[in-house]
Please model this.
Amino acid sequence: MVPAWLWLLCLSIPQVSLETKDGHVSWGPQPVHVHVKDENDQVPRFPQAVYRAQLSQGTRPDIPFLFLEASDGDEPGTANSDLRFHILSQAPAQPSPDMFQLEPRLGSLALSPKGSTSLDQALEGPYQLLVQVKDMGDQASGHQATATIDVSIVESTWVPPEPIHLAENLQVPYPHHIAQVHWSGGDVHYHLESQPPGPFDVDVEGKLYVTSELDQEAQAEYLLQVWAQNARGEDYAEPLELHVVVTDENDNAPVCPLPGPPISIPELSPPGTKVTRLLAEDADAPGSPNSHIVYRLLSPEPEEGAAGRAFELDPTSGSVTRGAAPLHAGQNILLQVLASDLAGAEGGLSSTCEVTVTISDVNDHAPEFTTSQIGPISLPEDVEPGTLVATLTATDADLEPAFRLMDFAIEVGNVEGIFGLDWEPDSGHVQLRLCKNLSYEAAPSHEVVVVVQNVAELVGQGPGPGATATVTVLVEKVLPPPKLDQESYEATVPVSTPAGSLLLTVQPADPTSRPLRFFLANDSEGWLCIDKVSGEVHTARSLQGAQPGDTYTVLVEAQDADEPRLSSSAALVIHFLKAPPPAALTPAPVLSHHLCTPRQDHGVIVSGPSEDPDLARGPYSFALGPNPTVQRDWRLQPLNGSHAYLTLALHWVEPHEHVVPVVVSHNGQMWQLLVRVIVCRCNVEGQCMRKVGRMKGMPTKLSAVGTLMGTLAAIGFFLILIFTHLALARKKDLDQPADSVPLKAAV
Model:
């Protein structure tokens, strides 16, 4: 307790003024903390002087059955309020003076291990315990208080009940009382558990209840365990076990098996062949009449005039077998079977089960092609391997998919392995494909015979004539497409070039090849035209709209004159030049060179005008002059920024001296180079063969011809004189008389 003078001290503190850091002064009372040291001036107390408790025989040792409480007014958490409980005495002291034990700190009273073994020998009368509570913890000093505990020993009533039988689906109010348990000791709490978990509960008086309907098919038995516990949830004794048996009611009809795929039997199956077995299930108790199922065939009914049923049913086992009535391939028959519990007795439950039976066909039909002759099919000889040649289709009249699986093979006409087959076994379609390259020279045609047969073994008659098909393939000879002398063409044209100017000539790479026809494509401006036969490309009109520095690309197409489908093409790129006035051209040195005709693999190096110090230095752009003939006969290819390479564009050019104009430009300035080229016949070493001139002192050609003519005239004159003389002499001999002719002497 706080003394009154301490309160007066707190009230008599005067008001003081304090100056804060910012210079302000505050007035008023200020708190003063005073710590008052606690003294052990309070005596612990029991809430009651006498306690009464019941102890049941069979209580476990060390399990508290009574909890003592005491209070102390001293400051909590100090030694002054640290309480300890002790048993001071036990009366009577038989059969053992230590029958009980008191936990010093918690104050929980329990039977000691020695007392547990002696409890059965205990007196019927109560035990009286004198207990003490003392503060100051375990110290000898301190205040104390006492109380009396009367403990009565009672006979144990903790015994398990008999098994309980509960009907499933019981129609009663819930929760429904089913049993009672009792712990004869005091301060008891009951706890219940169910294995497996079920709708059961226990109240504070030990009454057991079922809280909802039970289902015997879901769970036929339960094991209930009930514990008697103290306030701390500690078990006084071993739990009681109670068996709950759920009795069965006929509340479940037979359940048919889930519908499965149709059951297939061969069409020629003999009577007695097993078809299937129906196994309906009843969720009621096994072995009881509620789950005793019998079967009866409802359909199909026997046909009128038939020898018997198509199917027979065993009423006990549910086995379905083949009957005597005939069946046909492809039939789908629905079997309806009534399954009844209670062995078919009146009042039982039943369900109708259904099974579909398919009458399957045997493999008695061979596959056949829908078409026995295919073709002729024309294929070019350059067609790629893997190309589809033909698709053949075969059919099989059997119903069973396994009997329609087919296998294909090439029987005749594939010695070289040129053809192959691709198919899916269950498709009925086979693809004839090319495996190797065709050759018109080796074989201009092929006759391929394909045969089909079942994968499964065939029953009955063998394959007929429709099991083969013949594919006729004709090989087309392929001509190579025409080839041009260049992969692409380029021409440099001033924008002022007039219509009709020859730009270049497109020629075949082989002059002896088949004749070609030439065409232009992508000529969107219509500036160009090409001669279909010669391949000469001209300007079709003035190049109006063309700008210097622009390029214009068209496509030159060459077609075989006899086979238009054979064609090739090349790009023609036109470079437009500025059309400089003639006066703007700066003359440059005239160069002289020679080239051979027919064309050989050499040309002329053309240099820019950089050697002249008065002219600008490169880099330069080189182009042929705008003369169409020059652009037709010559080709100019830039080598670098200072040189270009001049060659003949045609295979043959007339041998004589040519002056080729070359336009050189740089930064808007243009020059014209006149390249003098002597085109001549050359020897094998590529040297020009020149004509030999008249040697000094030798006659000229005219004088030589005159001398020859004079000599021939003199010879002719002498010959005329000789022949005239001979003719006159002969005439004189003929005019003489005969007797004047001298006779030859006789021999």
The helical segments are 4-11, 113-118, 628-633, 701-734. The longest strand covers residues 669-680. Residues 701-734 form the longest helix (34 residues). Residues 1-21, 582-592, 737-747 have pLDDT under 50 and may be disordered.
